Amino acid sequence: MTAALLSALLSHWWRNPVQLFTLLAGLSLGTALWTGVQAINAEARASYDDAARTLDEGQLAQLATASGAPISEQTYVALRRAGWLVSPVIEGRLGSVRIIGIDPLTLPRDTGAARMMTGADLSGFLIPPGQILAQAETLNRLPDTDAARIATPGAAPGVAITDIGVAQLLLNRVGQIDRLMVTPEQPLGQRPLADVAPDLLLTAAQGSTDVARLTDSFHLNLTAFGLLSFVVGLFIVHGAIGLAFEQRRPMLRSLRALGAPLNRLIALMVLELAGLALIAGGVGIALGYAMAAALLPDVAATLRGLYGAEVAGQLVLRPVWVISGLAMALGGTAAAAAGSLWSLARMPLLASALPQAWGAARTGRAQVTFALVLLGLAGALTQWGQGLLAGFVLLGALLIGGALLLPPILRAVLHWAEARARGPLAQWFWADTRQQLPGLSLALMALLLAMAANVGVSTMVSSFRLTFVAFLDQRLASELYVTTANPAEADRVLNSLEGTVDAVLPLLSMRQSVAGQPVELYGARDHATYRDNWHLLQAVPDAWDALARGEGVLINEQLFRRAGLGLGAPVPLAQGGALPVLGIYGDYGNPIGQIVLTEAEFRARYPEVTALRFGLRLDPGRVPDLRAKLQADAGLPASGIVDQAAIKALSLDVFERTFLVTSALNMLTLAVAGFAILMGLLTLAAMRLPQMAPVWALGVTRRHLALLDLGRALLLAALTGVLALPLGLALAWALLAIVNVEAFGWRLPMSLFWMDYLRLGVFALLAAAVAAAWPAWRLSRMKPARLLGVFRHER
Amino acid sequence: MLLHLQDVTKIYPSAELPVLRGVTLDVAAGEMLALTGESGSGKSTLLHLIGGLDSASSGTVAVNGVDLTPLDDAGRAAVRRGTVGVIFQQFNLIPSLTVAGNIAFQARLAGCHDAGFAHDLALRLGLVDHLTRYPEQLSGGQQQRVAIARTLAARPKLVLADEPTGNLDEATADAVFALMCELVRDSGAALVLVTHSGRLAARLDRRLHLSGGLLS
Amino acid sequence: MSVRIWLLLMLLAAPLTGLAQGFAGLGSRAEGFALPSPDRVLQFPADHGAHPAFRIEWWYLTANMTGPDGTPYGLQWTLFRSALAPEDGQGWGAPQLWMGHAAVTTPTAHHVTERLARGGIGQAGVTAAPFAAWIDDWSLTGPDFDHLRLTASGPDFAYDVNLQARGPLVLHGQNGYSVKSAQGQASHYYSQPAFALSGTLRLAEGEVKVTGSAWLDREWSSQPLAQDQTGWDWFSLSFDSGDKLMGFVLRGADDYTSATWIGADGTVTSFKDGAFEARPLTWHNVAGRSVPVGWQVRLPIRGVDVTLRAVNPDAWMATSVPYWEGPVTLTGSHDGVGYLEMTGYGE
Fold it and tell me: Please, which chains are in contact with C (at least 3 CB pairs closer than 8 A)?
């Protein structure tokens, strides 16, 4: 019996291949977008993990100077001889490669670097010119050195390890150590740190790494995008499954009348859908993999440039996202089919076998009520929601509520137009459009969601970009940045700069803890550079003057939000008590708090910190000359001089790449929605013959009817687009003002990009036109006999 | 008795009057019975109760010695599969299966598919040239002949037919009806035919008239 | 003690998490190292210091001790030097590497720890006068070689003891030129077998005052031994009579034994292969291996026939290359204490 039933159920798909294709394609595309995004995320995360694990950053406690100045080898040896099991690390860049110098003899076991050393030739590694261990791809990016290059597959991308002695030579920093890793198990009888190395600060092991927290923002955006895309796909699936169920109602009735038990039928249909979902999920995963493989190089470049995070340019098939893709396909199918299965379970055997007007039941009063409840929930969450989860619930409620409200709004608009239409054909056009609405509403909802997601994401990305550019201008106001290795070199540089630049701004900084938060303190010289470029989100009157007089400090938004330090709140500082907050500035992408005080206050409180980095103000045209002069006169290495224009250009280039990724995803979701419309129209085409035939019989040509159909698709797409705009903007607002704040502690100011929206509208119309073109063309070429058949074949 | 109805009533919650008011009926194996009555007289309802498609409000419906009234959906479905065959006014073919597939279908459900027997039926019903076609490619008379073949292929003991020729023109209807009667008689099954046509009813063994919810 | 040359080479050649294979290249870079010479006359205090022109060298100290309640304890402190090239130098690139092993054995526990360091930056090293040998916070220091202070620390133990020499240095072989094989391999080798020890052990249960005796070996060479043996058993025994016996068995196709007798009067006698006998009596499972922790040791020529029993059978050295080393007690023809070292007992 099971075989007979299954063959009857499956025969439906053979006889309706377009429906089968719609179902599989919708599910595959949704899964593909989701999986692709997950794959990119998983790959990037795995890469950071590899990089972080190289030194078990975060997993091990660290020792470093408060000022960030290098640690001397004498201090290192003194610590070891005092019973401190610490291992030295020096880090720097050679070209685009992150060079990490380690001491393999003291390296804590179970670090990634120790694993990389397994099988290495130790004496070759230790004795100059030494060896550099990295992935082959990373080695190719290294400039020429004497050190032997050893391809090490286990290395993190973009990271090379070498002996600390070799690294010091390569980085031109002989005798310097950046930080000390502290082995977890320390011996008895260790002397106190304060006695041995009072200038070093012990940072306890942390759970996550800075880079992971920074890049979380990027991944959250991608994940949100993937989810939105999947929801768009689900609407298509829901439509296809709903249609298939409605069309099979007569068959199901027959089967039951012939003696098929209902529960067996339901079980078989669940089985059938699960099988289809697995097939579609598998195809989707393959497509997603292809998409991720195509996009990953751009994402890798984005992350490298934006956050300095290294991501391998190659994709590995990871079980995590394969499983998540299949789970999404199955779960999505279940969600899409639940309603249909439920109504099948409750369908009386003798109910009318005629298919119900598809979707008509879904546009009732209950739907409007439900949509309004969802939107109300979203509104309430913006006011009273707490936490990231509430943010995501808000997004979901907003999107689904908006989508459910679309058909009633469209129906009202069409009704209004119909009442004002003159001429019989126009009246028929509006009435017929309204009648088609139930059949197309799922496809239109998919289009609405795709467009809203587009508007939301592009607003978010563009706002992020604007903010980021402004932030670059604020933070990179000086034309040239100079980093010196030690105070002597700093003096040499300052002397050679005498009278050649407009201003020298020393960059004094150190770390400490304020209100339980790790915080960076900066000493800023009172100079127009800061006043002109720094944008304060909140400030007391004449904040800059008050700051210059040493009456308070400026803090970044992160510290303001996390420690709850508003204007006027006292900020506790190391020596000499607290200073009040004079202003709060935006500090985008920075994971930790910052405090800015005047140079004088800083030097008075932290006399042990000397400035080793300087910002130089000068005529941008003279930058190359000064660069050359600094290298010649003060003997600064090229790596110690960074030119602001170069950094900005690099950063912006990175942003353009981000755009490439998001716009590619945007196009894909739009294509998926266009596909939904096509499928909706194709299914409707057959059902609509009885409605078209009388109009044709009354003297309207097929060509005319086809044009009207095309116009109808464009009209519906345009109306949907108009409604998608506010929904998309609400989505963007929720992402920027709610989710971002909950996730990262800072709010992105939202900007509007009308040209982008207009372009999107044009694309959406184009998608609708392309989708409607084929059914319209088929209609214009339809044999009159088929239209006539309507009159003979009436059921 | 193949079929035994005792004091069967049927009341729909939405209707004021009972559709059936204590119907008692016995049909012997091989007997061919016509049920006539006006539209809305409850003859289709009675047929549905006999076929286990609906359940009686009170009374007993026993088919082949099995009382249907206490059975659940699965139990009644089993009786439909094994003992009863229903031929509807609407042909109720499975549109996505070929003619051959449709003919074999109920027998496969009942687990008694016999390809030779099915082919014989197709031959006698004049369907052999259409076995690979789909229902939508057939005329109404052909479709109903497929429905008859499907029902008889499963070798039911009781065939229920609800206006089987109601959708066909008179000439076709007569031909199909004659063929159906002949085949049912040959198979030894009992037939309960619901029709409003006295002409067709007159051709069967016995004729009962349903009026006001009561048999006469 | 020549077997310890082998120990070190094996140590350096064996897989050491992440770094050991690096040491494996050592053997092929042997060119240019100084070789031991029978003509060399050891000069003190200069020869207490490091000899960077030689490939390997160590300062190896073991001690038998007792606590106030009579509990026996054992202690080990070893500083190995291994040169990647026959030169000294400053900075990270200097080719002198150092390794320290320290252990404390009680009847119920065995604490062990290891350190690695580079010489060129001052993290480890040895100076002759005043004498100082150190790696990280571990040290063996004193105004001269007869008066030393020894410290070491691990996550679960530490010690700080004073050593007073109770006799002269013992030069092994021919004035400290110790021939190791028929092929002519040799080392420079001397010992101070008679340090009186007093000091403090720091253990989980608290501080323990201890007294006892210690044996310090000094040896340096550049040549590995023949490698056909699978391991060795090494014994240093101090009899209550004041006599001392060092002996070892190299296990292989044919066992090879050697021994040195140091009389209470300071006379030193070496014995060739076959004079010394050692036979396992009881076996014990430790770290997944079966190791003999009870022995019958005989030197018939001196009337020695003693039974050895480990103070703690679990004295396993879980260092980069693992081995067994711990204190033993003796009964039989002589009573006394000693140290036992066993290598090459596979899993």
Answer: A
d(CA B213, CA B22): 8
Touch between chain A and chain B (3+ CB pairs, < 8 Å)? yes
Give the C-alpha separation, B37 to B211, whole Å: 6
- Residues with Cβ < 8 Å from A680, sequence gap 6 or more? A239, A439, A440, A442, A443, A444
Residues of C contacting chain A (CB within 8 angstroms): 17-26, 29, 84-85, 91-93, 95, 97, 113, 116-118, 121-123, 134, 136-137, 153-158, 202
Beta strands in A434-493 (DSSP E): 480-483
pLDDT digits (tens, 9 = 90+) for A401-441: 888 888 889 988 988 988 888 877 888 888 888 878 877 77
Q: Chain B contact for A253, CB < 8 A?
A: yes
**Under 8 Å between Cβ of A537 and A93:** no
Class at the top of the CATH hierarchy for domain C1-225: mainly beta
Q: H helices within A347-364, ranges in order?
A: none
- E strand or H helix at A413: helix A387-420
> A212-215 long-range contacts, Cβ below 8 Å, gap at least 24?
A212/A45, A212/A48, A212/A49, A212/A52, A213/A591, A213/A744, A214/A307, A214/A309, A214/A589, A214/A591, A215/A44, A215/A48, A215/A303, A215/A307, A215/A309
The C-alpha atoms of residue A298 and residue A292 are separated, in whole angstroms, by 10
The answer to whether B112 contacts chain A (CB < 8 Å) is no
Residue of B nearest to A260 (CA): B77
Which CATH number is associated with domain C228-347?
2.40.370.10
Say yes or no for a CB contact (<8 Å) between A1 and B111: yes
Residues forming CATH 2.40.370.10 domain(s) in chain C: 1-225, 228-347
Please list, in sequence order, all residues whose beta carbon lies within 8 angstroms of the beta carbon of residue A636, skipping any fewer than 6 positions away. Answer: A482, A484, A489, A493, A630
Looking at this protein, which amino acid is placed at residue C85?
Answer: A
For residue C312, the model assigns a pLDDT of 95
Strand ranges in B53-175 using DSSP code E only, listed in sequence order: 58-63, 66-67, 84-87, 158-162
Which residues in chain C have their CB less than 8 angstroms from residue A128's CB? 93
Q: How far is A150 from chain C (nearest CA, A)?
A: 14
CATH number at residue B89: 3.40.50.300
Q: How many CB pairs under 8 A join A and C?
A: 111
Indicate the number of domains in chain B.
1
Considering CB atoms only, which of A15, A256, A353 is closest to B77? A256
C195 vs A556, residue with greater confidence: C195
Q: Please state, in angstroms and rounded to a whole number, the distance separating the CA atoms of residues B178 and B170.
A: 12
From the list A138, A126, A200, the residue with the least C-alpha distance to A167 is A126
Sign (positive or negative) of CA dihedral A298, A301, A306, A311: positive
Domain hosting residue B193, numbered range: 3-215
Rounded CA-CA distance B54/B47 in Å is: 9
Distance from CA of C55 to the nearest CA of A (A): 13
The reply to whether the predicted model has a pTM over 0.80 is no
Average pLDDT value for residue range B78-88: 84
* Domain boundaries, given as residue ranges, for chain A: 1-54+216-356, 59-205, 360-474+652-782+785-795, 475-648
Alpha carbon of B107 to those of B97, B129, B212: distances in Å? Answer: 14, 21, 37
In DSSP terms, which residues pair with C249 in a beta bridge? Answer: C233, C257
Q: In A80-199, where do the E strands start and end? A: 86-94, 97-102, 131-134, 148-151, 159-163, 176-177, 179-182
Confidence of residue A384 (pLDDT cuts 50, 70, 90): confident
Residue among A639, A35, A107 at smallest CA distance from C16: A107
Model pLDDT for residues C202-253, shown as the tens digit of each residue: 998 889 999 999 999 998 988 655 556 677 888 999 999 999 998 888 787 7
State the virtual CA torsion across A252, A258, A261, A266 in degrees, nearest 10.
-20
Using CB atoms, list chains with 3+ pairs below 8 Å to chain A: B, C
